[in-house]
Structure formats: C-alpha cells, structure tokens
C-alpha cells in the first residue's frame, strides 16, 4: 500500500485511511460472507454438492429462474429500447412523468411490487378478470414470474441506452440520408449498431438482477415445486428445514451463475470500448 | 414524385408521423401497464376499507414495530454506506494504484448476487451451525435472527450505491481543485470539506437517496437473516409478506402504500436533482 | 528567493518524463520554460510546486533542501492551466481561501482578509467582481482571479502553467503585460510554462528550452535567438 511500486505518489493526502476504510468494510460486508459460502462448499465437498444440486427439483428451480429471467430480459431489451428512444427523441405530454417513473422499479420495494402485481393479475383482480375470458392466466403460472421480472428489469435497458441515444451525433443520420438511405435503413444499419453495446450491457444487467430476484416473484408465482418454484425460494425452504448444506449447494450454484454474468458484462464493456470508444 | 413535393417536409433525422405516434402510444401503454397500474393498485387496495381501515392498520402494534425496525436499520446502514462510498471514491478517483479495476469490480459484486444468497451467506457465517456462529452463541452475541444481522444484510445489498454515484463524478472532476487548495496551504481535511465535499454534495445526496430507498425496501436478504419475528425483527417488507399471507390485505397494502410513498418521494427528489444539478451528477444521470 | 535543481529526474512507470536536469534560477527572475507538449516542462513546474515528486535529485530554495517539503509548506503561488477556481465559491472567497486556511495563530482577522482581498482585486484591475462566481467571468478575468488567489498567500515564488493557453490572441497580449507588471511590483521569482516561443521571448528574462525531458538551452532571449545551442532550439524558436 505504501510501497511506491503499488501506488503512484501524490500530493493529495488520505490514501491510507480511505483505502483502509474501504477495504475493511468491503471485507466484513462482502468478502467474508462470500468466503463463508464458498468455505462451506469446500467443507461439504464437490461430490456431495453435486449430489444436492443434481435433483429434479433443484434443476427445475434453477432452470426456471434462468429461463424466466432470459424471457423477461429479452422483452425488456425490445421495449426498453422503444421507451428510451421515445423519451429522448419525441416531445409529448407526460414525457417527463414517464421518464421519472422508469426508475420506479428501482425505488419501489420488491415486496410491494410483488403484492401489487398479484392483486392486479390474480383471478379475482381487475386484469386477471379481464384476461380470463381469453383463457389467459397470469398469476400463479410461469407467465406471472415473467411479468414480475419485466417490472424489475425495466429500468436497466432504458437507463443504459438513454444516455447513448442522447449523445448520438445527428450528422451521422444526416450523412446516411444524403447517401440515399431511407429512415428504416438508417435506423437499422447506422443507429442500431451504435446502440448495441449499451443494449447488451443493459440486457446483461437486467438478466443478472432477474435471475436472483425473490421479493416480487414469490407472491405471484404460486410456488408449486417443479413448476413455479424459483431457485432463491428453494434456498429459503431448505433453510427453514434447517438443511443449510443443501441451501449452500443451491447458493453456490447461483453464485457461479452471477460470476459468469459479471464476467460477461465486463467482456461486453471491454469489447464495446475497443470497438466504439463508449463506456 | 408529386406527393413528395406536396407533403410537408419531414426532417431527415426523425421518423414518419405515423411511426412516431405508434411508438409513443406503445411507450405510454407500456408505462401505464407496468408502472402506473401496480402503483395505483397499492393505494386502491390500501384504501379498500376507507381511511379508517388504513389508519387502523397502521396502529396495529406489529405494523408499528415493523416501521420502527425499518427506520432504525436505515438510520445505521445508510450513514455507514455513505462513509464507505466516500472513502472508496476518494481512494479510487484521486489516486493511481494497482488493482483499482479489480477493487471496483468487487464493490459492484453485491449488485449481481441474489439477495437471498446474500442472506444465506450471513446465516452460514454467523448461524449456529458454523464454528464462528457457535462461538458467538457461547458468548451470547446474537447476529443472525437479530438486529446486527439485518443491518449487515442491508449493508450488503446496498453496498455499491453511494460509491457508484461518487466514483465517476470524482474522476470527472479530477484533482486540480484539490491541488489548488493544497498549494494555497490548506490541510487535507480542510481541502476535503471546503473543496471536495461541496463539489460532490449533490451526487452524494443522489446516492444516499437510492441507498435509503433500497435499505428500507430490502426483502429477500432481510427475510432470510431476520427470522421474521413479529414485533422483534420483522421489518416493513417482511411484515407486508406476513399480513398478505394471512389475508390481511388492507394491513399489507397500507404498509406497502407507506413504502410506495417513500419511493415516490425518492423519485421526486431524484428527478429534481437531475434537472437542477445535472452538471454535478455522473454523466449517465443527466437526462 | 532563488531556486536550484540538482540532477532532477522523474519517471512515470517505465516512461521518463525528465532525464536528470540541473538548473539555477536567480532570485527575482522571470523565467519561461519553453517546449512542445511532452517536453517535461509541466512536470518540472509541478515538482517545484510539490505537486509531483521527483524519482531522484534535489530541489533547493535559497540553498536549503526543499525536496521533501510538503505542498502546503512550500508557499508556491500556483496558477493552473485552466485556473482550477473553486466553482462553488465567489471570487472573494476564492481569493480569501489561502488566508482562511492558515492555522488560527497565523490567520489574519476577517477584516484584514477583506482588506487584502480588496487590494489584490485592485492589483488585477477587477475591483468590482468579488461577489461573482467563476462561471460568470470571462476567460481573461478568470486568469487574473487565479493570479490574485495565488498572490494572496504571500507566496515565495510564482508558478504558472500555460497561463495564457486558454485565451484568445488579444486578451493574451494584454495579460502578458499584466503579468510583467505584477512580477515587477512584487519582485517574486516567477516561472511560467509555455509552448509559444514568441510569448517566452517577449516576456521572460531567462528562457529554458526543453525537449523530450531534457534541457536544450538556458539563456536570455537574445542569446537564444542569436546562438541556438542545438538544431532543435534553432527550428523551434524560428517558428
């Protein structure tokens, strides 16, 4: 820390204390607990861990969490782009209200969102009743999980793409038009490629958040084992059964998925910085 | 060709009228269905039995204990995170050292860990069936299923909030103002309080706002470590779950409405900051 | 106060920003560090101010070793390239900053601070702008405020990093004259960095031509014009 090799000298004071505080808190709050989970995994041993994960119920829970997160994030990829484009490029009544409301899923507690969506889409709720004649059931099916995850992931794509759209140079679009390109061609061939890195980053952030989501999902999911039981819920159930080893096994599986996605996000950002020079 | 001449000229950098109307309509519908409808439902359900019902729900002892619990947690977790965020941002933005990128990745890590897994980690670390937990038990120190565990869980899930807002702002502002203060003879602390802090105050407030909203609303991690003991460790979100599962809909939605109002207040202040102090927030926050 | 550099070198990682350089600046001189970007002139100036630390070598002020002296204790009036005015403070507060930052026993009273700031604003010929904020000033005004702020601490030397770099040609000429006058009134040893050879030649008593982290030549403007020591100096000053 003090060694000149590790840190460039600076006239500004306070590196030692600030770095120390940051590292100490990081260790106690984040690293030590992660270490405890991985340490428990080592104590259990890989074969045992695999045995606890490799059951039909755990697999279907993990697959459900991942599948639903993927579907919801793909949906958000498309609609998040539309929303971001509309908010930046068009002027209409209520634009600022919608712009501010995009962050609602960040600010609204997940349990609140969960019971609100359940009340709306339950068979006796207003939306649930409206959809029933078409034979559509949302609450207590996998579609309910998709819905909750769309809500949770909504801001990510919008908020990563929005600033990039704001920074787009109109010259490029004008150049495309002077070269004879129609508007749709310009959007597809000129604008979309520029937005791709931001879109991918937003998508990956939404996906990472949705895979582990719990609060907004458990109310609307119905939680039927093997069908609508998400992986985090299974961890809670195992803990309530005092089976902390089985809970740790699922937890490690989810942590590995998180790490993989974190790596993917970093890779996307490095790639896009090289290619387009945007962060 | 004649219709092109006759039609009103459309700027080349926008879409045709019809496409614009469709896209705006789609965006409004999407926002109405996914954002405004759930929000409206919370208040409608809370007032399903009129104001008396909501007031009666709020005066339930369990509800009041949950409100006190949530406020106490935020009162401890948010300032601690602010201290962490400032310290981390100062070290990262104002100095060059090895492993900086790795440190930033570690700080962001809690964002991609499921809250339930975060709670699980704390249970494994401090719970009765770990050796450290057993030692704590023997010395009568309770962390899991008690207040300290809930604070730790809240700290974990809100960990990156303040640091993430401050780091880009402080990197963008550079070091020259601090260097100027030093050449004028100011001490380190004086430089921090008279130059750095005024420059980051709005970004700090922004981060604290988001941190506070998440701290008061955290559910998954807290549900796992708190044990959800009524009147003792139950927070507002976990109490909402219990009320809801007991079909006490008005009580559940009344507590939910209180949290929803907090969320609305957060969004309002956040939007004000973005409009009034955009130049002092991180670039991605300026809409 | 005179300034002496002994075999001063600076490396950033594997890059050498300064090869060992030695230089003597007599008390009261007005010196230009002249060179293209990347020549090490700004690094040298920042080492004088205590904002950068040499990898090896010594800095002496009036013969005393100042290499390890902290930036606060150097009392070098430093004018930053983009002025680094505190955006959230008025001009008055900016200029008063250094006086208010002093230890209580050495701090002047508020009334005395007020008198000194007024005197400095008179000196830079902007007596009425004390209540304004930096973003309400023109580029030339900001530069002069930065100068007043640096002078307020009663510095032992005045260091300026490209003081005219961000200004247009007309303002530049005026402010050059202003700096000369302030130097002559205060008698401070003054070092400024510039890449503009005309500016260096016109303003400085002594010009230090630098290139690639080395000092190519030190001399009076006329000497450098008449007898360029190297090919680099000849082409660079002929421009």
TrEMBL record, chain A:
<feature type="transmembrane region" description="Helical">
    <location>
        <begin position="249"/>
        <end position="271"/>
    </location>
</feature>
<comment type="similarity">
    <text>Belongs to the binding-protein-dependent transport system permease family. CysTW subfamily.</text>
</comment>
<keyword id="KW-1133">Transmembrane helix</keyword>
<dbReference type="GO" id="GO:0015419">
    <property type="term" value="F:ABC-type sulfate transporter activity"/>
</dbReference>
<keyword id="KW-0764">Sulfate transport</keyword>
<feature type="transmembrane region" description="Helical">
    <location>
        <begin position="100"/>
        <end position="122"/>
    </location>
</feature>
<feature type="transmembrane region" description="Helical">
    <location>
        <begin position="134"/>
        <end position="158"/>
    </location>
</feature>
<feature type="domain" description="ABC transmembrane type-1">
    <location>
        <begin position="62"/>
        <end position="265"/>
    </location>
</feature>
<keyword id="KW-0812">Transmembrane</keyword>
<feature type="transmembrane region" description="Helical">
    <location>
        <begin position="58"/>
        <end position="88"/>
    </location>
</feature>
<feature type="transmembrane region" description="Helical">
    <location>
        <begin position="190"/>
        <end position="208"/>
    </location>
</feature>
<comment type="function">
    <text>Part of the ABC transporter complex CysAWTP (TC 3.A.1.6.1) involved in sulfate/thiosulfate import. Probably responsible for the translocation of the substrate across the membrane.</text>
</comment>
<dbReference type="GO" id="GO:0005886">
    <property type="term" value="C:plasma membrane"/>
</dbReference>
<keyword id="KW-0472">Membrane</keyword>
<keyword id="KW-0813">Transport</keyword>
UniProtKB/TrEMBL annotation, chain B:
<dbReference type="InterPro" id="IPR011866">
    <property type="entry name" value="CysW_permease"/>
</dbReference>
<feature type="transmembrane region" description="Helical">
    <location>
        <begin position="247"/>
        <end position="269"/>
    </location>
</feature>
<dbReference type="Pfam" id="PF00528">
    <property type="entry name" value="BPD_transp_1"/>
</dbReference>
<keyword id="KW-0812">Transmembrane</keyword>
<keyword id="KW-0472">Membrane</keyword>
<keyword id="KW-0764">Sulfate transport</keyword>
<dbReference type="GO" id="GO:0005886">
    <property type="term" value="C:plasma membrane"/>
</dbReference>
<dbReference type="InterPro" id="IPR000515">
    <property type="entry name" value="MetI-like"/>
</dbReference>
<feature type="transmembrane region" description="Helical">
    <location>
        <begin position="113"/>
        <end position="136"/>
    </location>
</feature>
<feature type="domain" description="ABC transmembrane type-1">
    <location>
        <begin position="67"/>
        <end position="274"/>
    </location>
</feature>
<feature type="transmembrane region" description="Helical">
    <location>
        <begin position="69"/>
        <end position="93"/>
    </location>
</feature>
<feature type="transmembrane region" description="Helical">
    <location>
        <begin position="20"/>
        <end position="48"/>
    </location>
</feature>
<dbReference type="InterPro" id="IPR035906">
    <property type="entry name" value="MetI-like_sf"/>
</dbReference>
<dbReference type="InterPro" id="IPR005667">
    <property type="entry name" value="Sulph_transpt2"/>
</dbReference>
<comment type="subunit">
    <text>The complex is composed of two ATP-binding proteins (CysA), two transmembrane proteins (CysT and CysW) and a solute-binding protein (CysP).</text>
</comment>
UniProtKB/TrEMBL annotation, chain C:
<dbReference type="InterPro" id="IPR003439">
    <property type="entry name" value="ABC_transporter-like_ATP-bd"/>
</dbReference>
<dbReference type="InterPro" id="IPR050093">
    <property type="entry name" value="ABC_SmlMolc_Importer"/>
</dbReference>
<keyword id="KW-0813">Transport</keyword>
<dbReference type="GO" id="GO:0015697">
    <property type="term" value="P:quaternary ammonium group transport"/>
</dbReference>
<dbReference type="InterPro" id="IPR017871">
    <property type="entry name" value="ABC_transporter-like_CS"/>
</dbReference>
<keyword id="KW-0547">Nucleotide-binding</keyword>
<dbReference type="InterPro" id="IPR003593">
    <property type="entry name" value="AAA+_ATPase"/>
</dbReference>
<keyword id="KW-1278">Translocase</keyword>
<dbReference type="GO" id="GO:0015419">
    <property type="term" value="F:ABC-type sulfate transporter activity"/>
</dbReference>
<dbReference type="GO" id="GO:0016887">
    <property type="term" value="F:ATP hydrolysis activity"/>
</dbReference>
<dbReference type="InterPro" id="IPR005666">
    <property type="entry name" value="Sulph_transpt1"/>
</dbReference>
<protein>
    <submittedName>
        <fullName>Sulfate ABC transporter ATP-binding protein</fullName>
    </submittedName>
</protein>
<keyword id="KW-0764">Sulfate transport</keyword>
<dbReference type="GO" id="GO:0043190">
    <property type="term" value="C:ATP-binding cassette (ABC) transporter complex"/>
</dbReference>
<dbReference type="GO" id="GO:0005524">
    <property type="term" value="F:ATP binding"/>
</dbReference>
């Amino acid at each position: 820390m003090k060694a000149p090799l590790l840190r460039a000298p600076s006239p500004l004071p306070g590196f030692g204390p600030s770095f120390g505080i940051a590292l100490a808190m990081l260790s106690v709050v984040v690293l030590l607990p992660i270490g405890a989970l991985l340490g428990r995994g080592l104590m259990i041993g890989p074969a045992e861990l695999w045995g606890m994960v490799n059951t039909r119920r755990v697999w279907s829970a993990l697959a459900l969490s991942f599948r639903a997160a993927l579907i919801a994030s793909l949906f958000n990829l498309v609609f998040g782009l539309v929303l971001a484009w509309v908010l930046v490029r068009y002027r209409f009544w209520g634009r600022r209200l919608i712009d501010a409301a995009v962050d609602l899923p960040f600010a609204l507690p997940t349990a609140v969102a969960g019971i609100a969506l359940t009340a709306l889409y339950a068979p006796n709720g207003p939306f649930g009743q409206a959809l029933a004649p078409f034979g559509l059931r949302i609450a207590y099916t996998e579609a309910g999980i998709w819905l909750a995850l769309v809500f949770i992931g909504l801001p990510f794509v919008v908020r990563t793409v929005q600033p990039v759209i704001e920074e787009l140079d109109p010259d490029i679009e004008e150049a495309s038009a002077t070269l004879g390109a129609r508007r749709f061609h310009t959007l597809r061939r000129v604008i979309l490629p520029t937005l791709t890195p931001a879109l991918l980053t937003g998508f990956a952030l939404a996906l990472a958040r949705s895979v582990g989501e719990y609060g907004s999902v458990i109310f609307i999911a119905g939680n039927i084992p093997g069908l609508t039981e998400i992986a985090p819920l299974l961890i809670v159930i195992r803990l309530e059964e005092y089976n902390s080893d089985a809970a740790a096994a699922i937890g490690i599986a989810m942590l590995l998925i998180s790490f993989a996605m974190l790596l993917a996000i970093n890779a996307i950002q490095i790639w896009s910085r090289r290619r387009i020079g945007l962060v | 060709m004649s219709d092109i001449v006759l039609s009103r000229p459309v700027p080349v950098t926008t879409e045709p009228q019809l496409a614009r109307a469709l896209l705006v309509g789609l965006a409004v519908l999407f926002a109405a269905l996914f954002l405004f409808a759930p929000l409206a439902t919370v208040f409608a359900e809370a007032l399903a039995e009129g104001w008396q019902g909501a007031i009666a729900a709020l005066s339930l002892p369990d509800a009041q204990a949950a409100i006190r619990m949530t406020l106490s947690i935020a009162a401890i977790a948010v300032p601690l995170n602010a201290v962490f965020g400032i310290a981390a941002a100062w070290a990262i933005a104002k100095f060059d050292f090895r492993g900086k990128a790795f440190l930033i990745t570690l700080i962001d890590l809690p964002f991609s860990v499921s809250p339930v897994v975060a709670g699980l980690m704390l249970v494994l670390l401090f719970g009765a069936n770990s050796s450290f937990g057993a030692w704590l038990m023997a010395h009568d120190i309770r962390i899991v299923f008690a207040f300290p565990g809930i604070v730790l869980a809240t700290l974990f899930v809100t960990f990156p909030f303040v640091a993430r807002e401050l780091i880009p702002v402080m990197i963008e502002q550079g070091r020259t103002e601090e260097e100027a203060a030093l050449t004028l003879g100011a001490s380190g602390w004086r430089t921090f309080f008279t130059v750095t802090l005024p420059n980051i105050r709005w970004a700090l407030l922004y981060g604290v706002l988001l941190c506070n909203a998440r701290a008061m609303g955290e559910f998954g991690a807290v549900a796992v470590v708190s044990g959800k003991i009524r009147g003792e460790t139950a927070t507002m979100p976990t109490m909402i779950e219990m009320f809801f599962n007991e079909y006490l809909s008005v009580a559940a939605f009344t507590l939910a409405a209180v949290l929803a109002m907090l969320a609305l207040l957060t969004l309002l202040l956040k939007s004000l900051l973005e409009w009034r102090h955009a130049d002092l927030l991180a670039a991605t926050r300026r809409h | 106060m005179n300034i002496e550099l002994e075999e001063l070198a600076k490396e950033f990682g594997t890059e050498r920003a300064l090869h060992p350089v030695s230089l003597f600046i007599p008390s009261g001189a007005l010196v230009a560090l002249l060179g293209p970007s990347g020549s090490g002139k700004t690094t040298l100036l920042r080492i004088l101010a205590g904002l950068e630390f040499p990898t090896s070598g010594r800095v002496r002020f009036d013969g005393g070793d100042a290499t390890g002296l902290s930036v606060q204790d150097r009392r070098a009036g430093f004018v930053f390239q983009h002025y680094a005015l505190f955006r959230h403070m008025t001009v008055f507060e900016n200029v008063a900053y250094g006086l208010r930052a002093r230890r209580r026993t050495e701090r002047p009273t508020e009334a005395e601070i007020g008198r000194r700031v007024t005197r400095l604003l008179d000196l830079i010929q902007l007596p009425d702008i004390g209540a304004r904020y930096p973003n309400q000033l023109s580029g030339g005004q900001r530069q002069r405020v930065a100068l007043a702020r640096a002078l307020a601490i009663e510095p032992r030397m005045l260091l300026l990093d490209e003081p005219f770099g961000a200004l247009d040609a007309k303002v530049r000429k005026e402010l050059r004259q202003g700096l000369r006058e302030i130097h002559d009134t205060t008698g401070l040893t003054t070092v400024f960095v510039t890449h503009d050879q005309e500016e260096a030649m016109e303003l400085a008593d002594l010009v230090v031509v630098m290139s690639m982290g080395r000092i190519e030549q030190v001399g009076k403007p006329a000497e450098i014009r008449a007898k360029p020591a190297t090919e680099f100096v000849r082409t660079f000053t002929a421009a």
